Amino acid sequence: MIITAIKPYAVWVGIRNQLLVKVETDEGIFGWGESGLSGREKAVVGAIEHYREWLIGKNPFDIGMIWQALYRSQYFEGGRVLQAAISAIDIALHDIKGKALGVPVYELLGGKQRDRIPTFATTSAEPGPEMIEQAKMLIAAGWNCMRLSPSGHGSSEIYEPREHIGTTAKWMVKAREELGEDVVLGIDYHHRLSVAEAASFCQKMPSGTLDFLEEPIRDETPEAYESLRTLTDIPFAIGEEFASKWQFLPYIERGIHQFNRIDVCNVGGLTESMKIAGWSEAHYVDLMPHNPLGPICTAATVHFAAAVANFSWLETRASPAEAHILGFDNSDFFPVQPRLENACYPVSDAPGLGVEVNEDLVQQQSFKFWQAPMLRRRDGSVTNW
Fold it and tell me: Cβ distance 13 to 333 under 8 Å?
């Protein structure tokens, strides 16, 4: 079997662009992958087109060798664009190999360690009574882990962290009081804070209010996270933007965080994800995978989560708390895909990823330019989105 074609589709599906990648072979077996570098899909398409010239004619079963060749056979190795391209190709190759062998992808990763993949859901309302009601709705629907909403996200082009820290902290305390001690509560600050701001937020809440703090500051400097680690006892969940095992290295080795928000569509696919999982297990760091994209990302991450020992929860954006925002029905595009059952994804036993794509419909869609919000502070300076 050899690779005969690689087709990237950067198209608008529902509320966002998705970069889907189809790898075809001379035996008629094909696989699907997905890239996770949202907002920069055209850059990743360019990288895939470069890789395609070398990949045509190669054996798709040689997944490990192909990963090494794509990463190492160039002077400028790695980086988020190249790793997003490698991720999509790697996932598609696993899909091909699983289909060719008649086994689900998790069998290629060492076999299944769990039958169902627990998820965490996210409230969409600003901190306040509606957020609490959404959280109670999620508990009633079967979720025992959820991510709450910080104040000021998405409501304006102006974002001043200090104006929202107090309100957010107050409603986190209220949520714990209302929801009880059994539910796992966290918050995603989307790396919008400085070390001092994040410490101030944490110190406004009693110890035990939150079970995880996601992406409070930017990740470029591990020493900054180490500094914040000395100022709070809340477990950190970070890493969704990491693009290799080497980016995870200082965080895992120096005991900075407790949850890896690993993204199989950005970090280098399933090949790289499994290496990071084993490394994390050795340091007692749990996995809380990032999963904001489409059904191919979800399916690949479900197989990954099924095959690792140190898994905690998988992100889902398909809960009733976000249905009015993200509730686009993509069944026409993906007639077979993972479906939630009681806040868990059952692990598919179908060969490959267990996802079907309506390629004809995908081909009818076009790319839409989308730019993340360019947030500013009141003094006119640029701040983090």
Answer: yes
184-188/259-260 β-pairing? unpaired
User: Could you tell me the two tokens for 186?
Assistant: 């966290």
Catalytic residue among 94, 190, 257, 283: 190
- Of 302, 280, 306, 284, give the one whose Cα is nearest residue 293: 302
Question: What is the per-residue DSSP string for 71-130?
Answer: HHSSSS---HHHHHHHHHHHHHHHHHHHHHHTSBHHHHTT--S-SEEEEEEE--SPTTHH
Catalytic one of 153, 191, 290, 303: 290
| pLDDT, tens digit only, all 385 positions of the chain | 999 999 999 999 988 899 999 999 999 999 999 999 999 999 999 999 999 999 999 999 999 999 999 999 988 888 999 999 999 999 999 999 999 999 999 999 999 999 999 999 999 999 999 999 999 999 999 999 999 989 987 667 899 999 999 999 999 999 999 999 999 999 999 999 999 999 999 999 999 999 999 999 999 999 999 999 999 999 999 999 999 999 999 999 999 999 999 999 999 999 999 999 999 999 999 999 999 999 999 999 999 999 999 999 999 999 999 886 666 789 999 999 999 999 999 999 999 999 999 999 999 999 999 888 889 999 999 999 8
Distance in angstroms (rounded) separating the CA atoms of residues 95 and 105: 7
The structural domains of the chain, ordered by start, are 3-102 (3.30.390.10), 107-352 (3.20.20.120)
Torsion sign over Cα 91, 92, 93, 98? positive
DSSP secondary structure string, 16-40?
A: EEEEEEEEEETTS-EEEEEE--TT-
290 is catalytic: yes
The answer to whether the CB of 87 falls within 8 A of the CB of 35 is yes
| Residue 364 CB contacts under 8 Å (≥ 6 apart), including other chains | none
Note if 190 is an active site residue. yes
